[in-house]
Amino acid sequence: MLWRHGQTSWNLERRFQGSTDIELTETGVAQARRAARLLAALKPDAVVSSDLKRAAATAAELAALTGHAVAHDSALRETYAGEWQGLTHDEIVARYGEQYAAWKRGEPVRRGGGELETEVADRAAPVVLEHADKLPEDGTLVVVSHGGTIRTTIGRLLGLEARHWESLGGLSNCCWSVLGEGARGWRLLEHNAGTLPEPVLGDDD
Fold this sequence. Notes:
The chain is an alpha/beta fold. It is globular, with a radius of gyration of 17 Å. The longest helix is centred in the middle third of the chain and has 17 residues. Strand 2, helix 3 and strand 3 form a beta-alpha-beta unit. The protein is built from 7 helices and 6 strands. Helix 2 runs parallel beside helix 3. A 6-stranded mixed β-sheet has the order 3-2-4-1-5-6, sandwiched between helices. One of its GO terms (cellular component) is cytoplasm.
């Protein structure tokens, strides 16, 4: 399960956070507590989180209910976006319009002079796989990270071409996506969910 952190003040202001270390708002803490109660019911076997405050605080709410120690890893941080960080959406479009348009077209772009999306996947996906490999059979791992990092990680694990990663819609604050191992590799079972997974009945038949 790849779980996005709760709300921050920069989320409300539509500011590009990137690797800037922004804390949760009171609403964000409440979101994390609500979601943690749901996720704890799945009895996860391990929790790993970005070390940025907003993700670590979200993970701490689940750890408090499960008793698991959280493994923090800087490789799960959000995309570093250089000069874009701290700017609002409108400011980015006004100052970096062509760069923004190229990114939306699926071209490899160093937004604000920062990381490529493929570089984010290069650092984050192996961490997810490393921790997943340590799970017991049919075990559950919860990865607490950031919207962009989660999207690129899912794209990489599913084997999608990088230019198609944007087709995976964004995650709302404190929502999650669920991946499971199928006969032909990883499958996306749920995306941007805020409720517990339901069994899939009649899949492909």
